[in-house]
Amino acid sequence: MDLVNIFIITGSVIFILALWVIVGVRHLNGLKMHIENQWENVELKIRKRQDLIPLLVESFRAHAKGHEVLIEQLIAERAIASKESTPSANRIAYEHDISATLEKLFDIANENPEVLKDTVFLEAKSEITSIFDDANNEVKKYNYIIREYNLHRDFLVLKPISRVFGYDVLNIFNI
Known about the structure:
de novo design (two linked rop proteins), 175 residues, 83% helix, mainly alpha
């Protein structure tokens, strides 16, 4: 073999490796961008729900005396959760806490006829429930994309790229 053929073969191997790395990195970056966009959708729904909590609390407070501890707990949980902006274990715990406290508040409200007559409370409750359902749907989409990303990063041809360039396993999110 002469020197020209060796350079052609070496150049071809380098070109194929570079192309493999470029395509792999672009693919994983595309999936991560899709994940970030979907997280923004989830975050929007969660923020909408959190923004309605003060209206719900004020309406509830006007009719259901003696439940200040529950109201203060909900306000505190909302304040803590609003500081988190990334999908983390803490964020999941905060959202679960808010959901549990809202359920308690709704249970108390269902037993109080004055609260059930308040249209502001009923509209806020309905809106929060609807937004929560929408958020759960967005979370399902987010988790699907996370699973796809984790599956792709573990493909035989993408695994070396994901390790070298730091594409770590991402966790699913539940509210």
